[in-house]
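Before we proceed, please read the two lines closing this message. Tell me what the token row says about the fold.
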Amino acid sequence: MTAGYSPKPANIQDFLTEVRRRPSMRVAHGSLCHLYSMLLGYRIALDIHGITEPTDFWSPADEAAFTHWLHRRLGRDSSLTWAAEIEREAQTAGVPAMDLFFELLDDYRAGRQQGSQR
């Protein structure tokens, strides 16, 4: 077995860690829309099986916490998903969408941590 290899992610956070390490191995074409679809499928499976797993993308308190934060961060009101918005921003900035996604996700998480420490 290769060092750092995780054969079976236990949750969304583990899966995203694997995506960050090797995006082209986990997500077709590095597409955030593909990643969004995968996460949506995971959420539907959780709902079907009655499992609760709050994440950065949904929780009982806010069904779209990351999306709402992103729209505020970008200074726009939009009906687009976080994936579509970030792909649009990445194209404009000339950076890989997956890199921008993880940068924004890290910023979002850092802000949530600061808010919970107050």
Summary: The radius of gyration is 15 Å. The chain has a mean pLDDT of 86.
